[in-house]
Amino acid sequence: MLTNTRNTRVEWCDCDPAGIIFYPRYFEMFDTSTTMLIERALGMSKFEYLKAYDFAGHPVVEMRARFRATTRFGDEVAIETALLACGRSSFKLAHRLTKAGTLAVEAFETRVWTIRHPENPERMKSQPIPAEVLARFHGTVS
Question: Which of 111, 65, 116 is CA-nearest to residue 91?
Fold first, then answer.
């Protein structure tokens, strides 16, 4: 299935006073990596695909992570994001953050394709992932 790798650096704003990354920052990095994966698959920015598919987003409904090695201020890291599976309205992803080839963090998440609830626009409601999006996720559309 679909994968994307991006390189980034651990910045001071990602860290605690000891210069070690504060763990919630990994989840922000993984959220950005998910967006980059979908943008690559669809060939458009998140702003564009939110409008094109008239949907509210793809919020996380489940996430877990394993922390294997410390990352610190200034470390260059690579984040590989892979789409593992797609359901009717949900999809599963894996993220692997490595530092100099060593696995530092791996995370797994489930996200849901959502629209604004028709009866209450302040709420979201799951919706089937459009067939065109699924085809692009599976690489069957160029």
Answer: 111
The rounded distance, in Å, linking the Cα atoms of 81 and 70 is: 19
Q: Is residue 142 part of a domain?
A: no
Q: Are the C-beta atoms of 77 and 6 separated by less than 8 Å? A: no
First to last CA, the chain: 14
Rounded Cα–Cα distance for residues 24 and 84 (Å): 23
Domain encompassing residue 18: 3-137
- pTM of this structure: 0.92
- 3 state SS for 57-116: ECCEEEEEEEECCCCECCCEEEEEEEEEEECCCEEEEEEEEEECCEEEEEEEEEEECEEE
CATH number, domain of 28, equals: 3.10.129.10
Within 13 A of 47's CA, how many CA atoms are on the CB side?
0
Question: What is the reported pLDDT for 141?
Answer: 63
pLDDT of residue 3: 95
Non-local CB neighbours of 28 within 8 Å, separated by 6+ positions: none
